[in-house]
Amino acid sequence: MSAYGHQMEREYSAQSLSSTGGSEMGSRYTMETGIYMSSFAATVFISGIVTAGVSLLALLIALAVMLQSCENTNSGALQIYKDIDSYSYCKSYALHAELNSLDVDFFPAICKDVAVRYINEGQYMRDLNMTVGIAENFFSRERPLNDSRDIVLMDADDFFTSENLHSHLSMRRINKDAFHDSSRVKNMFAVKLYLKLQAGGWPLILISRKPETLRDATTEHLASVGCGGWSSLIMRMDNETQMDSQQHFSKQRTALQKEGFQIIATISSQMDAVRGPCLGERVFKLPTPMFNYKTEDYVGSTNL
């Protein structure tokens, strides 16, 4: 090969090396400045982002639900506290109204709704059941002695429902149905206690506010509800029809004690029957609805 040919070969080889080196440098540069990713890797990456987003959304929803639940719980607790406060507030008014024979107009407006709920939601029945249970517990430890001179006095009018009595007008203005329901419930528990005492051998004397002219009808009604076998039924005499009912009960108890009877207990749902002298060893006051009817309203009635 001539000298010229060797020179051309060297130049060609140099160009080839130069071209190869440039290609490697160019490829390296591309890899450093760009991101190459296969379709599988891209799918995995996108799926991860979606999963993270869904998890975050679920977390936010869970937090929102928890916050709403806490809010509802707090709201319910506040409502319960409000109901308890209203009930206690109105019970205090009811107690003073009963002690002083006050009219329904004495009560704050909020108590009219509370009084109806007291009956409809079953609290009145629970209070009656508790009081009767206390009385039954006392008599379970006692036995009648003294040759039948140990007696228990019961309010005869507690065995009558509001359909038999003239209920107070102001009570009917509140809720007539609720009042009638409460009267039936009281009648049921009064009869239950009567039968329990009778089964225990206690002589039972019944005192009523109604006049003597209604004796036959009263006796018939007592028998119809299962309250027979009493020792005595005391009614108002003609000269007692205008007497205050508390004075009437006190007079009858005093007379019984003077006759040698030992009053073991006095039982009534009305305040007039559990105040005054000669009440005996125990007094059991059956609860009444917050708005109580006035017993004086049916004293002169000719119907049951």
UniProtKB/TrEMBL annotation:
Tagged with keyword Transmembrane: yes
A Pfam family: Acid_phosphat_B
Region (Disordered): 1-23
Compositionally biased spans, kind Polar residues: 13-22
Transmembrane region(s): 35-67
Keyword Protease: no
InterPro entries: Acid_phosphat_B-like, HAD_sf
Keywords for this protein: Membrane, Transmembrane, Transmembrane helix
Protein's recorded name: Acid phosphatase
UniProt lineage: Eukaryota, Viridiplantae, Streptophyta, Embryophyta, Tracheophyta
